[in-house]
């Protein structure tokens, strides 16, 4: 997209991108306001800087580590805003802090000098983080299509059940009950006096009303956690049946002693295939959802997304499967 282009050429192209969002009669006003954004031109200014900042990322060469966290948290309902926060937290903010400490005058350098330092961005990297986040999200949702579809399906189901005033109940593949019950919170502000000084405290309290927004957004990540936990439990059980006795388990990562590592490596893959081939995990989840609704509301639970044609046995040969 940006091959052999200079920054000046990209800036011209960015203006053409921005022009699409500005009425012709207001174009001159936009040019005057581009570096002093106003609400009137916010959409166009964002489009302008997004184009330039994508060029800057292109010049820097985005690495796997720059997008890994966003890709990994996608199924935990992280989206563009969350991705942008991650990029600022992991990349742009630490780099600015380092440059401020070691090269205080770096901001006054030329574009090429700042590029060499790894920070050619505008606006403290805000536009850059949003631009890369938008691009990552676009490509995840069009590459991991089935993952995106099942996430949307879970989000819809969580909202439907919560709007019926019910907690979400699911039984894990190993028979363990999982309950998601988010309630609407209310906040009350109270004033207290300590040693003559007044302070305001905000006190949150839970109502009896189900929070459909929270329930819908949380069901996909919570289901992912439930399946992670099921896999870890089953891996440990299968490993114990083969005589392994010591494990390090952190969230969704597993380890054992070096002497057992080769077998453990393969056992994880075998167990992953076992977990998802012995039963139809997502159809069982759908039946759990249906059981929580009266029959005349069953139509509100959508059919499952169509399954893909991936052969689970390929996991047995995978170099990278589960941490």
Structure explained in plain terms:
The protein has helices spanning 7-19, 27-33, 42-60, 64-73, 80-102, 111-117, 126-143, 145-163, 212-241, 261-277, 281-291, and strands at residues 168-171, 177-180, 183-194, 197-210, 247-250, 253-256. With 323 residues, it is an alpha+beta fold. The chain folds into 2 domains: 7-144, no CATH class; 147-179 and 212-317, 2-Layer Sandwich (Alpha-Beta Plaits). The chain has a two-stranded antiparallel ribbon with strand order 1-2. A two-stranded antiparallel ribbon has the order 3-4. Strand 1 (168-171) and strand 2 form a beta hairpin. Helix 1 (7-19) packs antiparallel against helix 3 (42-60), helix 3 packs across helix 7 and helix 9 (212-241) crosses helix 10. The longest helix is centred in the C-terminal third of the chain and has 30 residues, at 212-241.
In short:
With 323 residues, the protein is an alpha+beta fold. Helices cover 54% and strands 13% of the residues.
């Amino acid at each position: 997209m940006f091959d052999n282009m200079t920054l000046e050429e990209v800036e011209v192209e960015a203006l053409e991108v921005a022009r699409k969002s500005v009425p012709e009669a207001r174009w001159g006003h936009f040019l005057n306001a581009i570096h002093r954004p106003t609400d009137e031109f916010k959409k166009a200014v964002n489009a302008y800087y997004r184009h330039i900042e994508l060029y800057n990322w292109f010049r820097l060469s985005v690495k796997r580590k720059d997008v890994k966290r966003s890709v990994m948290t996608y199924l935990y309902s992280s989206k563009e805003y969350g991705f942008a926060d991650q990029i600022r937290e992991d990349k742009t903010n630490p780099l600015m802090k380092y440059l401020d400490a070691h090269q205080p005058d770096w901001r006054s350098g030329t574009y090429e000098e700042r590029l060499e330092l790894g920070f050619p961005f505008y606006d403290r990297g805000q536009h850059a983080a949003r631009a890369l986040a938008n691009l990552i999200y676009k490509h995840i949702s069009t590459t991991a299509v089935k993952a995106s579809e099942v996430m949307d399906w879970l989000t819809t189901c969580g909202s439907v059940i919560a709007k019926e005033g019910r907690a979400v109940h699911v039984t894990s593949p190993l028979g363990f009950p999982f309950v998601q019950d988010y309630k609407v919170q209310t906040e009350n502000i109270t004033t207290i006096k300590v040693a003559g000084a007044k302070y305001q405290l905000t006190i949150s309290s839970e109502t009896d009303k189900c929070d459909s927004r929270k329930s819908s957004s949380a069901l996909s990540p919570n289901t992912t956690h439930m399946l992670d936990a099921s896999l870890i439990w089953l891996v440990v059980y299968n490993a114990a049946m083969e005589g392994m006795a010591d494990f390090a388990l952190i969230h969704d990562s597993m380890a054992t002693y070096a002497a057992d590592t080769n077998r453990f490596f393969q056992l994880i893959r075998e167990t992953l295939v076992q977990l998802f081939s012995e039963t139809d995990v997502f159809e069982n989840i759908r039946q759990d959802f249906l059981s929580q609704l009266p029959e005349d509301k069953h139509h509100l639970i959508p059919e499952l997304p169509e399954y893909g044609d991936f052969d689970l046995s390929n996991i047995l040969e995978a170099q990278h499967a589960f941490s």
